[in-house]
Design goal:
The chain is an all-beta fold and 399 residues long. It has an 18-stranded antiparallel β-barrel. Strands 9-13-12 form a three-stranded mixed sheet, with no helix packed on it. Strand 18 and strand 19 form a beta hairpin. It is globular, with a radius of gyration of 21 Å.
Length: 399
């Protein structure tokens, strides 16, 4: 499914009131975001699921740092309640780590969220953190990952190393929560290719460098696959997840040429019986001062390829994404993104999304997300979402 990709660590991104305190050589900062989300579906679900769903969430961010900025501590708990589906309720430590920083290297231990990638329409190289499927079909939400990480930099580039001692299983909503599988995913009977199961020691690394206008990254991952194979259990009407061992080599590149931004993500992955190559490549062109206003309009085009062709269990095997991003550059920080993903093998298969946001005050932000799914092919991944077109309104309060 199409997804927006960022390359920065998660933060509470909006105007906020920040509380700070200094004690015993440490400074404390804290920020909080409470969100009310209302989802409205165009139809009742295929199994009679409700059209209206309410979600409440609280994200808090606490950071401590000593006077020398050598030692710092980060704590970011996340709490979510879903009206229709108790399986979607979540209490997660997205970040809970200690960081030691030297002049040209740093060491972290604890939970963290790491983002890799440059493309707009899907994430290929971003593989460290597990996906929180309840967060939305754009697959942006991630679960905190326990890790020990090292990051060092010099003229030769930046090297990141990650040891991941504990695996987080993918979080699926149960059918009453919608935007999920037709049968519930039963985590208690999950199977693993690794005899150590969730205790398998995963490993990841990434090297990155900037060459004038080119940003280049090379990555490698070995460990439990973040994408389970879901095995139907007809007698119990449930799905059993199976996690293969996986190796992945990735490359991401971004080249800036004036108002043009060229992007590439590509992976080679070996997971269980599958071995395939996937890629996303395209550009974003920004027209500054459109309509003789202070507005900026970005034109986005990306092509998605997967060597598994129509057998791929995801969208993006031979698809074209076209989108437009409008930034009004006003006091309210108003932004809008419209995108359409068209399957080039199935002319009737497409999805479209609309994202918009604006600040109502220093403490309030209003967001709108809408998704449309179209297909008449029962073998298409989008087929199970054919009745799940929805509009989501979110009000975020920062304090």
């Amino acid at each position: 499914m199409p997804a927006t990709v960022t390359a920065a660590a998660p933060t509470i991104a909006a105007p906020l009131t920040t509380a700070a305190a200094v004690s015993s050589g440490f400074s404390l900062r804290q920020q909080h975001q409470g969100s009310l989300q209302q989802r409205y579906f165009s139809q009742t679900g295929s199994a009679g699921q409700a059209r209206a769903h309410t979600l409440l969430s609280l994200l808090s961010d606490f950071s401590w740092q000593d006077d020398s900025a050598t030692h710092s501590f980060q704590l970011t708990p996340f709490l979510r309640w879903q009206q229709r589906d108790s399986a979607s309720n979540l209490l997660d430590l997205q970040q809970a780590y200690w960081r030691f920083a030297a002049s040209n290297w740093e060491l972290k231990a604890g939970n963290d969220i790491v983002f890799w990638g440059v493309s707009e329409s899907q994430r290929l190289v971003d593989v460290i953190n597990q996906v929180d499927m309840v967060g939305g079909v754009e697959l942006e939400a991630r679960l905190g990952q326990p890790m020990l990480s090292f990051k060092g930099w010099n003229r030769a580039g930046t090297l990141e190393l990650y040891l991941l001692p504990y695996f987080r299983e993918r979080l699926f909503a149960d059918p009453p929560g919608r935007l999920t599988t037709p049968w519930p995913v039963e985590h208690d009977i999950a199977l693993y290719e690794s005899s150590r199961k969730q205790r398998n020691l995963d490993f990841a690394m990434r090297w990155s460098q900037r060459f004038s206008a080119l940003d280049l990254g090379l990555s490698y991952f070995a460990g439990n696959s973040r994408e389970p194979l879901l095995i139907p259990q007809p007698a119990a009407q449930q799905l059993q997840p199976y996690y293969f061992q996986m190796q992945q080599f990735g490359i991401d590149a971004q080249y800036i040429a004036g108002d043009w931004l060229w992007k590439l993500e590509s992976i080679y992955r070996r997971s269980g019986p599958q071995e395939f190559v996937a890629a996303t490549a395209g550009f974003e062109y920004t027209y500054v001062g459109v309509f003789n206003r202070s507005w900026d309009l970005g034109w986005i085009t990306e092509y998605q390829y997967d060597s598994r062709n129509l057998q791929a269990p995801v969208t993006g095997q031979n698809d074209l994404f076209v989108g437009w991003r409008l930034a009004l550059n006003d006091v309210a920080g108003s932004e809008l993104l419209l995108g359409v993903l068209q399957d080039l093998d199935r002319s009737s298969s497409r999805s479209a999304r609309l994202e918009a946001s604006m600040r109502l005050s220093n403490s309030l932000r209003l967001r709108l997300n809408a998704w449309l799914f179209q297909t008449n092919d029962s073998s298409d991944v989008l087929y199970q979402l054919r009745r799940d077109d929805y509009l989501e309104l979110s009000l975020d309060y920062y304090f």
